[in-house]
Amino acid sequence: MAIKILAAGDIHLGLKVTGLSAGAGEFSARDIWKRMVDRAVLSNVDIVALSGDIVDRDNRFFEAVGPLQAGFRRLGEHNIRVFIVSGNHDFDVLPQIIKAGSHDNVRLLGEGGKWEFEKFVKGNEAVQFAGWSFPVQHVRDSPLKRFDTGNIDPAIPGVGLLHADFGAGDSPYNPVSLADFAITGMDTWILGHIHKPQELNISHPYIFYPGSPLALSSKETGAHGPVLITISNNSVGRAERVFASPVRFENISIDISGCESEEALRDTLVSGLLDRSLSFGDELQDVSCISYGLMLTGIHSNPALVESWSSGMKDDFSHETGGGTMILVHGTDYNIQPEVSNIRELARQNSPAGILARTIVAIEDGEETEFLKNLLAEWKENHREMNRKEIYLHLQKMRLPDDDTDEKGKQFILTESKRLLGNLLQQKSE
Ligand SMILES: [Mn+2]
User: Fold this and answer.
1) First to last CA, the chain
2) Pick the residue with more confidence: 336 or 293?
3) Which of 184, 177, 112 is nearest to 147 (CA)?
4) How far is the CA of 4 from the centre of ligand 1 (A)?
5) Ligand 1 mean position to 220 CA, how many Å?
6) CATH 2.60.40.10, applies to 3-241
7) 384: Cβ–Cβ under 8 A, 6 or more apart, which residues?
8) How far away, in angstroms, is 194 Cα from ligand 1 center?
9) Which residues of 228-264 are buried (b: 16+ CB within 10 A; e: fewer)?
10) Cβ pair 91, 67 in contact under 8 A
11) Hey, where are the domains in the chain?
12) Does residue 213 have a cis peptide bond before it, meaning omega lies within 30 degrees of 0?
């Protein structure tokens, strides 16, 4: 019989999703925790493993204590064990809540910053957990350096629970590196702290952030949700998402060039948002709303008009995917270049705009000007200077041999001249 572990970190009980447009409804960490408990019961998991920052802060004690203890109790009634460690947010409040509840099925591992170990056996499968909890808010010296492999039975799969900042050497939140984990002898590490789900090392040891099960803000883009790992035949499998966060955030860039009417703009934006949403396929199955940070790009005769046409999207836009997911927009941003219709006429003027226009015309016509020649020489010098820099040395091998041709330089100057000219003309018309 396989051992099934439902895992998540960074639930941040007490928080609600922020950044959604008005009218999107409310999504709370408390609801996602309830759903996790329901799923654990429904899927007959053996263990729920939580990797810290389960409660947002100590001032959330009263908001967190009820749902957390109700969940622990329900898991206990179904014989499901809970292994949990505290993080930098709940280093003080989590032990309090767990003590106040006295649930036999819940084990806080590593309280007070000392490693603790516990074995779990089911039929002919077994797993040993190791865990360490934040004793204070800031930890600069990683406890992995004090991990005693003498506590580990090499014959049984080992799963570690740790709240830690992977790959951030000077972090005050328990900075750790791959090498620190390699010497522990554990098979799998379930980490907390980083909200973006990610697998850090796929070979032995398997290290991953399950991430926050609910996307808590527009910064938390991509798929989120609790994961399941299974231990069978004495080995630990890869994490698989069991359900998706009901909210998903994404960023998108849409080129609106050629949208000369409000209707054309709306069509382009709606189909851009819909196409991207449909491209996620099954990943949107449990997602009630997908919210976009929208960037409008391209060339337009009147960028200010595009801004006014689309200014209401942030609060008013909503559109169904057809699969039950609502598409929303939580922010709009613009990078639109004004279209210059009279560029040849402008090129005859002796203003800064005229010089830029002349440069653009020269490049597009394949001609040379003194100004362009100087710019090109300067670009080449800067380009070589940059490539000589030490931090780029390891990229040298990947560099194409014709990296600093006139062609490349002219393309760069053309793009920048257009951008600058656009800005200049826009300033004039304002
Ligand atoms: Mn944290």
Assistant:
1) 72
2) 293
3) 184
4) 25
5) 14
6) no
7) 404
8) 7
9) bbbbeeeebbebebbbbbbbbbbebebebeebeeeee
10) no
11) 3-241, 247-338, 350-429
12) no
Structure-block tokens of residue 76: 């206990």
Q: What is the pLDDT of residue 39?
A: 98
Q: What is the dihedral of CA 55, 218, 313, 325, to 10 degrees?
A: -70
> How many beta carbons lie within 10 A of that of residue 66, not counting itself?
12
Handedness of CA 110, 102, 128, 12 (dihedral sign): negative
Alpha carbon distance 276, 87 (integer Å)? 35
| Residue 90 neighbours by CB under 8 Å, 6+ apart | 52, 53, 54, 55, 56, 57, 58
- pLDDT tens sequence across 311-356: 888 888 999 998 999 999 999 998 887 787 788 898 999 999 899 9
- Ligand 1 centroid–CA 338 distance in Å is 44
Q: How far is the CA of 261 from the centre of ligand 1 (A)?
A: 48
pLDDT of 69-104, one tens digit each? Answer: 999 999 999 999 999 999 999 999 999 999 888 899
**For the residues 256-272, what does the mean pLDDT come to?**
95
Residue 429 clears pLDDT 70, i.e. is over it: no
* Ligand 1 center to 91 CA (angstroms): 10
Task: Report the separation in Å between the CA atom of 89 and the middle of ligand 1, taken as the mean of its atom positions.
Answer: 6
For 181, residues 6+ apart whose C-beta sits below 8 A from its C-beta are 144, 160, 189, 201, 205, 207
Average pLDDT, the chain: 91
Contact indicator for 100, 55 with CB cutoff of 8 Å: no
| Ligand 1 centroid from CA 88, angstroms | 5
Say yes or no to pLDDT of 397 above 70. Answer: no
Residue among 16, 107, 100, 26 nearest 65 (CA): 100
Cα distance between residue 279 and residue 337, in whole Å:
28
Task: Write down the pTM of the prediction.
Answer: 0.81
> What distance in angstroms lies between residue 386's CA and the mean position of ligand 1's atoms?
37
Asked if pLDDT for residue 268 goes beyond 80, the answer is yes
What is the CA(93)–ligand 1 centre distance, in A? 14
